[in-house]
Amino acid sequence: MKKSLFTFVLLIISFSMSSQTIFGKWNSKNDETGKVDSVVEIYEKDGKAFAKIIDIKNPDRKTAVCSLCEGENKDKPILGLNILSGLEKDGDEWSGGTILDPRNGKVYKSYVELVKPNKLKVRGYIGLSLFGKTTYWERAI
Quick one: average pLDDT of 49-69? Predict the structure, then answer.
């Protein structure tokens, strides 16, 4: 009985701690339809945050490539594409990196901030963060 209770408590603590971080899987919604169109996984590497697209919901888009991208991402498959690079922790947010929008191939400066345990603010901008766009991702369960 004690062993089961201890295991249950550890699971609850583990789940609650994992929901207090930007790392994990997040649903990204299409701005026009409001529907989830992809799942993005944010991971840590060498103390920085990165993210890649791990699922595309539209079966017709699963083999799509980033034809509008430039450089090394030109014509790479969108599925598996790294879209968030090099963010460093700065207080409550992760900043100093970039985000790639595969819909238009453009790369923006970026920061992300966990606004609720299951809601992530993602901001892409040019120059000052005043000139940009904010979207919110919800944690994928």
Answer: 96
